[in-house]
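the two lines:
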Amino acid sequence: MATSRRRPREYWLQDHSGGWLVKAFLALVALAFPDLQLFNLVDDIVAGTAIPMSLFAQTAVLGCVYTSIYLFFAWVAFHGKEL
Amino acid sequence: MIRWAIIFSLLLVFGALRLPIEAALTEQHRSAYFHQARLGLDLREQIGQLGFLAALSGFRSLVADVVFIQAHVAWERTEWGRVLLLFREATTLQPRSVLFWDMAAWHMAWNASVAALHDPFQPNDALRRKAQREYFALGKDFLERGIKNNPDRPQLYESLARLYKEKLNNHAAAAKLFARAAALPRSRRSVTNASPPTSFPSRPGHEREAYEALHRLYDRGEQRAPADLAQARLKYSRTKARYSLG
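prediction for all of em together
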């Protein structure tokens, strides 16, 4: 069966073969960057795959949360600074 | 500096909080067979630089459709080698499109195989039959890979069953595949009800099994059942000396 491409988070959580430096880097990437592949559903829609309503709702809510949180971080980072 | 440290810490904390949510969503994607296409260097060599860039930039479906149309044109010109290459590209780009796998297998196992068998430029009959078998194998390979990518879709099981039944004369494998297709939730009623038993009569030693399966079908009042039942009954009567009705 074809498998989907593995992401840093999956390597970090499942792969036990790398050294501690690799693991630390993967953990940093996995924790700092959101998994945007979760929002990439367009090809499956074009291919005729039905997206379940619950999955769509969860993805939409997750998108809103990501946007709010990262906007908040950006606001905290640049608050009071001259542009 | 302190502000950046706080933000970075918050970022990591938020990352830890969202990990289980992302893992759950990823699992849902996996169970729904999303993100199956794999864009490797071999595909890049096949579809060219521009096509590969288009595929990477989100136009994968569009590129696959164009390749599919090119394959259709190649079929009209009976360029079988080109048909094979183009369908390999199309199915690589869109592995969840059942139509691409089914059409690729049909062209190989039904059209190209017949063309190879009647190839006027090949006087040797043995070589023509060898080419025909190779096209059967290519069609079978397309369907098997299609099933691996779409194990939840019954159409490809049906197509592979038909290939086993009509081209490879392997009715035992056909019956198993029809049964697997029938067990899937979205299978067609005609396959669900009629096809598995019709594969039984040609399996030596399975006449009784065929008779019983068709009798169950007959009892349910399916339209195709009476003729098939008669066929099975005939075969069964020939061999009833070896079996008892019970």
